[in-house]
Design brief:
single chain, Cytochrome Bc1 Complex, Chain D, domain 2, four-stranded antiparallel sheet, elongated, binds heme C
């Protein structure tokens, strides 16, 4: 059998003024274990109840200091010990940069941890049991009444005296509150196995769901991080072709789009004989030629083709392009050297488009003429 125990004597009032009066009379009468419940915060209640300032402020202070110390300490450790970096020539320990972070962490810890402390220490979370819950009194004070209750563990507690006292204050609704000691345990329940179990269950379910989503679901088509793509990769097999080889040789006797095969592979003399520069040395073509020459040829051949390489011996210096040999070459021979390369000079076919190669040759001819001007050029 459970035993009913007296928790408090409650009294209801109709107006905020009446409850303020009741509260200040109660505290003047010397009661200490009492509380007031109102539907909304009533101004002046702290004074009427003679409440001391809340001790939560000390927690906020401690947590704020913790935030400031950990922010400054961490940044000090990082900038002085773990990863000292010179940033903009400033000293390693450059405190103005720490102000925003320290401020933010101070505010963050002070506010968040104060609320956690309030809920856990003062409200005894996760225990939410209270004798006043589910009583007529609580229903009244959470709609339109103003209530006060003096608890049975007050040193001056006397049921008759308090009932008379409340009557004298003008309350018409005075009632005792009982609670069942066995049913209602309002101790700390933070380490209650049930609560820990629920926490563990939530942790397991949420981490399991996260694992399944990010490691399983996201790897199923169609959202598999684009790991399977309908395309051929170089050097990889392909099931599309009967021989299972992904890389294909061009079909014999065909020419791929946009590609003009070079017919004089390994035949510089034929190139010189049969190839003709298809463009004219207009101003635009010479400009293009100059630009391409300076980009692709000048590092080795020098800005004016004299073989004065800028590569400082990292690559063999080429011969001058003003030799009689090159000057007397037909354009096709030079085109052949650019396209196929010559000895250590590599091919520039992949980098320089056909028309640009011819433009370079026009520019090279202009350079040669500038070095070997004839009488007729001056006219
Ligand atoms: C990486 C350096 C390098 C670059 C860039 C380079 N060349 Fe050459 N080039 C050489 C070397 C070295 C030789 C000499 C090759 C040999 O030993 O036959 C040479 C040879 C030549 C020859 C033949 C000269 C001769 O007397 O046989 C021509 C013409 C020529 N280059 C033109 C060009 C043109 C035009 C470009 C720009 C598209 C170019 N080169 C870019 C290094 C370079």
């Amino acid at each position: 059998m459970s035993k009913k125990q007296l928790y408090s004597i409650t009294a209801l009032f109709d107006s905020p003024d009446a409850i303020i009066n009741a509260a200040s009379e109660t505290s003047k009468a010397g009661y200490t274990k009492y509380d007031v419940n109102t539907p909304y915060p009533v101004h002046g209640m702290d004074g009427a109840m003679q409440l001391k300032p809340s001790r939560l402020g000390y927690f906020a202070m401690a947590f704020g200091l913790l935030g400031a110390v950990s922010a400054i300490g961490f940044m000090t450790w990082v900038t002085l010990v773990e990863y000292p970096l010179v940033i903009g020539g400033k000293p390693f320990w450059s405190w103005p940069a720490f102000v925003p972070v320290s401020f933010e962490l101070t505010v963050l810890l002070a506010s968040v941890l104060s609320i956690v402390a309030m809920i856990v220490i003062y409200f005894k979370f996760p225990n939410n049991a209270h004798p006043l819950h589910d009583t007529k009194y609580m229903k009244a004070v959470s709609s339109d009444k103003f209530g006060i209750n003096i608890q049975a563990n007050d040193p001056k507690f006397d049921e008759k005296v308090i009932t008379e006292f409340f009557k004298s204050l003008g309350s018409k609704d005075i009632a005792p509150i009982y609670f069942d000691d066995e049913e209602l345990q309002h101790g700390q329940k933070l380490f209650d196995p049930k609560f820990i179990g629920i926490l563990l269950l939530v942790a397991i379910i949420s981490s399991g769901a996260t694992y399944l989503i990010f490691n399983q679901l996201m790897f199923m088509p169609p959202f598999n991080w684009m790991m399977t793509q309908e395309k051929l990769k170089a050097q990889k097999p392909s099931e599309l072709f009967a021989d299972g080889i992904g890389m294909r040789k061009p079909v014999e006797g065909t020419v791929a789009r946009g590609i003009l095969p070079y017919p004089f592979k390994g035949q510089p003399d034929s190139a010189g004989k049969y190839l003709v520069n298809p463009s004219l040395p207009t101003k635009e073509v010479l400009e293009t030629g100059k630009q391409k020459y300076l980009t692709f040829c000048s590092p080795c051949h020098g800005n004016f083709g004299q073989g004065d390489s800028r590569l400082r011996g990292q690559f063999p210096n080429p011969p001058t392009l003003h030799s009689d040999k090159v000057r007397n070459w037909p354009d096709g021979n030079i085109y052949h050297v650019i396209t196929e390369g010559q000895n250590v000079m590599p091919s520039y076919a992949p980098q320089i488009a056909r028309d640009d190669r011819w433009a370079i040759i026009h520019y090279l001819r202009a350079l040669q003429r500038a070095q070997n001007a004839k009488e007729s050029d001056l006219k």
